């Protein structure tokens, strides 16, 4: 491209396209480079999140929950359904349409904001220096099939996201052994489904296919279940997922081998909860590998320009997402911090504002986490185990959804909200939820922590009645042992 840009963004996921739009809004001439193609081989913006992650998974989770409600919960409302069935291909078609609308929407947003869009794989090249010895323009080689072009820009924002972590003994073919892409593309529910990994992706995919009829077994290598979450929340979640949802969850698993036969896949493993040292076998029709994600920095050309990566492949950045090189930034899954779309987007905005001379900022201590199971799980801030380990004195207040009128009306009464506050200052240190629609409720908790609220602040705010948010209100009251409705 003949004319240099103020900013070149590599990657059009939630971090990249948001950064590009904000740069353009601030008057910076911006280009966004991305190489994602949809199954039809056409450019498809939005990265993993819109194409094979957040958006399609939530679409299918909603479809499967609707089927679950119709099959098992509608009768309590006096709604009777005869001949209920599920058409998985129609679910997939609906999901694909939602994905297409959103990825097309990103393209329209870039065009609306006058962001140039270049399709292809971007590789960093060494830039030159101006007459004063200052760094001039960076160069990016963009390859799209046989076509190659060079993009020049003063600033670069790297937002190349992440890819699924692989296991050498379980090669993904997305026909029988699946990653998240394959798990979101099955046209029928397998009779027996195995999931390696009990984290966010494993639980969501396992829950989705369990509701549609699969017998699901989740194998987790860590000694405990959902160890990143609050221990009490994790315990409640495991109880609900196993006793009510029908998931089989095994922790402390060490897989010794996987054998692929003509009709089934056999996973050989040692179960820490079984007889010590005894090998067990799990025979399944499909196997999902969901053992986390790794930063997508391979092929970026970091070695060409001396860009620092750590031992795990993450790009090293400071608190403002600056790399070791002048005018080069990195955001999202390729840098430290949680691999979450909303975190990437906010970092993209912060970097754009920094480049424009403003004061961009992201508080990693108040990034919310959400798991879209049923019930949902959400949290922000410190867990009880983290506070205990750090020796922080705290108070806790808790309230169950069982005692909430709106939850009773919904017929979704499992779970609770817990508020953790400093014993001396009453400042909120963490809020943890498991229950209906807590993915929406967590926003109030994040806002409270961003404004350094105390539990008393939430306790004094009037919450609408009847609403699920009253559970957070009562949990805040519980910090000082003054809940009203239990």
Automatic annotation (TrEMBL):
State the EC number(s).
Answer: 1.8.1.4
Which part of the chain is the FAD/NAD(P)-binding domain? Answer: 5-348
Q: Name one GO cellular component term.
A: cytoplasm
Q: Any idea which residues are catalytic in this one?
A: 465 (proton acceptor)
Q: Which GO terms describe its biological process?
A: 2-oxoglutarate metabolic process
Positions that bind FAD: 58, 122, 160-162, 333, 339-342
- State where NAD(+) binds: 197-204, 220, 292
Which keywords does this Swiss-Prot/TrEMBL entry list? Cytoplasm, Disulfide bond, FAD, Flavoprotein, NAD, Nucleotide-binding, Oxidoreductase, Redox-active center
Glycoprotein as a keyword? no
Q: Mention any additional remark.
A: The active site is a redox-active disulfide bond.
What is the protein's given name? Dihydrolipoyl dehydrogenase
């Amino acid at each position: 491209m003949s004319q240099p840009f103020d900013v070149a963004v590599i990657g059009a996921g939630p971090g990249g396209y948001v950064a590009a739009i904000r740069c353009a809004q601030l008057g910076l001439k911006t280009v966004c480079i991305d190489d994602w193609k949809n199954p039809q081989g056409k450019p498809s913006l939005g990265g993993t999140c819109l194409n094979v992650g957040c958006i399609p998974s939530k679409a299918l989770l909603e479809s499967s929950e609707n089927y679950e409600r119709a099959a098992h919960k509608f009768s309590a409302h006096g709604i009777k359904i005869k001949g209920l069935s599920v058409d998985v291909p129609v679910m997939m078609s609906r999901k694909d349409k939602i994905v297409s609308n959103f990825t097309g929407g990103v393209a329209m947003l870039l065009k609306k904001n006058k962001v140039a869009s270049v399709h292809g794989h971007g590789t960093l090249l060494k830039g030159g220096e101006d007459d004063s010895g200052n760094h001039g323009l960076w160069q990016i080689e963009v390859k799209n099939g046989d076509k190659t072009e060079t993009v020049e820009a003063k600033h670069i924002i790297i937002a190349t996201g992440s890819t699924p972590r692989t296991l050498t003994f379980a090669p993904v073919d997305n026909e029988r052994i699946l990653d998240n892409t394959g798990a979101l593309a099955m046209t029928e529910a397998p009779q027996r489904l195995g999931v390696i990994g009990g984290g966010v992706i494993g639980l969501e995919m396992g829950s989705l296919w369990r509701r549609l009829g699969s017998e699901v077994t989740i194998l987790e290598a860590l000694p405990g279940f959902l160890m990143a979450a609050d221990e009490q929340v994790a315990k409640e979640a495991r109880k609900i997922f196993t006793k009510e949802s029908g998931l089989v969850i095994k922790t402390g698993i060490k897989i010794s081998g996987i054998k692929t036969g003509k009709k089934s896949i056999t996973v050989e493993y040692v179960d820490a909860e079984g007889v010590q040292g005894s090998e067990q076998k799990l025979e399944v029709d499909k196997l999902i590998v969901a053992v986390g994600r790794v930063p997508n920095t391979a092929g970026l050309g970091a070695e060409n320009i001396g860009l620092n990566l750590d031992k795990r492949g993450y790009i090293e950045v400071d608190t403002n997402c600056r790399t070791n090189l002048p005018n080069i930034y990195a955001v999202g899954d390729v840098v430290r911090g949680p691999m979450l779309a909303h975190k990437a987007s906010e970092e993209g905005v912060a970097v754009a504002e920094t480049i424009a001379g403003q004061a961009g900022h992201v508080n990693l201590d108040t990034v919310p986490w959400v798991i879209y199971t049923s019930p949902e799980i959400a949290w922000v801030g410190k867990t009880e185990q983290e506070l205990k380990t750090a020796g922080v004195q705290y108070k806790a207040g808790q309230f169950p959804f069982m005692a909430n009128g709106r939850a009773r009306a919904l017929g979704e009464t499992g779970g609770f909200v817990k508020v953790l506050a400093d014993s001396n200052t009453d400042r909120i240190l963490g809020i943890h939820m498991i229950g209906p629609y807590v993915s929406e409720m967590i926003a109030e908790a994040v806002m409270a922590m961003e404004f350094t609220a105390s539990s008393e602040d939430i306790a004094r705010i009037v919450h609408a009645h009847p609403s699920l948010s009253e559970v957070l209100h009562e949990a805040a009251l519980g910090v000082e042992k003054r809940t009203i409705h239990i």
